[in-house]
Every structure is written in C-alpha cells, then in structure tokens.
Design brief:
The chain is mainly alpha-helical. The protein is built from 12 helices and 2 strands. The chain folds into 2 domains: about 15-65 and about 180-355, no CATH class; about 75-175, no CATH class. The chain has helices at about 15-75, 90-100, 110-125, 125-145, 150-155, 185-215, 220-265, 270-290, 290-300, 305-310, 315-330, 335-355; strands spanning about 100-110, 165-170. It has a two-stranded antiparallel ribbon.
C-alpha cells in the first residue's frame, strides 16, 4: 500500500526514552564484561608491564643524576688555594658517566686517617695486599703533607686538610635512581593498577565499539553507516594517543619536572604508585582527546553543527581545548601543551575533513 505524503518514513527506527536507557544498559554491561576479561589478561602480564612503565622514570632519573655529576665536577673548588684537586680529569668523568654508565658521590676525607685504615686492612691480608696498602698509604700521606704524629698532635678538626674522594658505582645500582614504595601493601596496589592499565588498553576497541553502537541505536538508517566507518578510525586514533603519550610525552614531562626540582634545590624521591597514577591518567587523556576529528565529522553529518560554525567559532574551540587539556592532564604545563597543541591541529584537520567530505 502506498504511503501517505505526511507519513514518517523512519517510524520503524524511532526509539522511546526507556528503550534508549535499555540500550545504554546493555552496552555498559557488554563493555564492562570486555574490560573484565582484558583485566584478567592484564594480571597475567602485569609484572613485565610494571618494569616497562618504570623505564621512562628510571631513564629520566639517570639523565638527571648524570648531569648533576658533571655539574658537581665542574663546580668543585679546593678549600684552600693550591689545595688538592679532584683525582680525575673532566674527560675521564664524562667517559665514566656517559660511556660506562657509572655514577659517583663526592666525599672528602683526611688522607692520613685513611692511610691508617689501609695499613690496618693490609696487615690482616696477604703480604702482597699489605705492600699495596702501604704504598697507597704513603701516597695519601704525601698528598696531605701531614704525618701521623702531626695528626695526633692536633685536637681541632682540620677542615683545610680534607681532600676530595669520588665513590663510584654503576648508575643502575645507585639508590637515588631506585623507585621506592612506602608500605608493604603498596606493591600489590601497583600490580592491580598495572593490570587495569593493560585491561583498558586491550579492551579499548571493544569499549569504543559499544559506545558507537549505543550512538547508532538513536540514528536513522542512512546515518548508521557512519558508525561502521568511524569505529576502526576511532580505535586507531585512541591507540595513537596512548602511544604518543607513553613513548614521546613522558620523557619531556619528566625532564621538565626534574629540572624544576633542581631549580628549587630539591632531590626527587619518586614513588612507583604516584608515577603509575600519572601513567594511567595521561595516555587515556590523550586517547580520548584524539577522538576530536571524528566527533566533529559525526556531529556535522547528523546536522548538529555545520562547517561554517566550526570555521567561525575556532577561537572558542581553542579555549575549550586548552581547558579540557588542563582537566585531562596532570598539573604541569608540558603535558597540557603536548595535548592541547595536537588537539588544536586535529580540530583544524577535522574542519578540513568536513569541508572535503561534503554530504551529498
């Protein structure tokens, strides 16, 4: 039978408010089930993931203390004019810390007192070790210019007689580079957070699919085809944002934060749980932010906004992008800029796409 001219051609595709809520409930249950499965997988691989997450922080701390070591060497001055200098050249220091991955702590000792320790230690070992200890003791005594009798005759602490001593160790063994926990149960919490992070990343395609399924349920048949087009692109953009945050942004943000510590004269002592919270927030914020071009194109296709509105209101959009970036990232300017600037570029890229893909 022929339809009347005023008959709704899409009557069969309309949904009531209750049906929308039921569709949302089903999508949330499916998304939660997918996330739960992914988290279970995450528990199986959480340990190597924790070690992987530690790497940017350990690398940043290593670079920080390597630079501090060179600055300590360059800034060293003898206590008295003509006093004993550091026992290494700058070229040796650079080769050790940059070429061999070593770190050092600068200490000062009285060489005559150290000579006594070396003599006592050498006397209790083999004759060869004792002879070596004696030679080292004689050398240290000559550097100091003080005999044992002179040391015994002094009652006050001789500050000017101190000579520099560098204590070497591999940078990987340096306690300043280690990442600490402050309670016994904190390690378990770290393990659970790592599993959650793996679960969110692994289940992101499924969660995005359920999100777009819910959106498609309220669309007309000719609009639903855009969901099938947007879904793989949306997943790719989300993963691109996550990878950009983890492999590029973290290094810059950490270097900035550690430089700020150095500017304030504070030594960082990072906790793995706080760092893991940072790791959870930043990549997910980047992944969600990278959905901007698709959201723009989708809203333009269903008629909520048009290209002219996007073009005329770009200043407002930039302000909104910076506000949203401040909410999605931690409180530091680098992470805000690293999210806001790509989002601004994506906004103008979405505007170009909307102009290029004009609806027929």
């Amino acid at each position: 039978m022929a339809r009347h001219k005023d008959e709704d051609l899409f009557r069969s595709s309309t949904m009531t408010f209750g049906e929308h809520l039921e569709e949302l409930r089903i999508c949330l249950i499916r998304a939660s089930a997918g996330l739960a499965v992914a988290v279970i997988i995450g528990f199986c691989v959480a340990r190597p993931v924790v070690h992987l997450i530690e790497q940017p922080l350990r690398r940043a701390l290593g670079n920080y203390y390597t630079e501090r070591s060179v600055e300590t060497f360059d800034g060293w001055q003898p206590r008295i004019p003509g006093g004993p200098a550091l026992p290494y050249s700058r070229e040796e220091i650079l080769d050790a810390v940059e070429g061999h991955g070593m770190s050092f702590e600068l200490r000062e000792v009285h060489p005559d007192r150290l000579a006594r320790v070396l003599q006592a230690t050498g006397g209790s070992t083999t004759s060869k070790d004792a002879a070596t200890g004696d030679r080292q003791a004689d050398k240290l005594e000559k550097i100091a210019g003080h005999s044992n009798d002179t040391a015994d005759s002094k009652r006050d602490f001789d500050l000017d007689a101190l000579v520099p001593l560098l204590l070497w160790q591999p940078l990987s063994k340096d306690a300043r580079v280690s990442i600490t926990t402050l309670s016994a149960q904190e390690a378990f919490g770290i393990y659970v957070k790592a599993a959650l992070l793996v679960g969110v990343v692994l289940s992101s395609p499924w969660i995005l699919y359920q999100l777009w399924t819910f959106v498609a349920a309220g669309l007309y048949p000719q609009e639903k085809r855009w969901v099938r087009i947007f879904l793989p692109i949306s997943t790719g953009l989300f993963l691109a944002g996550v990878l950009l945050a983890f492999f590029f942004v973290f290094d810059f943000v950490l270097d900035y934060l550690l430089e700020f510590n150095e500017w304030l004269g504070l030594d960082p002592d990072p906790r793995i749980s706080e760092w893991l919270g940072f790791v959870l927030i930043l990549p997910i914020g980047f992944g969600l932010g990278f959905q901007l071009p698709l959201v723009m194109l989708f809203l333009e296709r269903i008629g909520i906004f048009d290209v002219e509105t996007y073009s005329s209101q770009w200043r407002v959009a930039v302000i909104v992008i910076f506000v949203v970036s401040a909410v999605l990232t931690p409180a530091d300017p680098y992470s805000l800029l690293f999210l806001a600037i790509p989002l601004c570029l994506l906004y103008f890229g979405g505007l170009v796409i909307c102009r290029w893909m004009r609806p027929r």
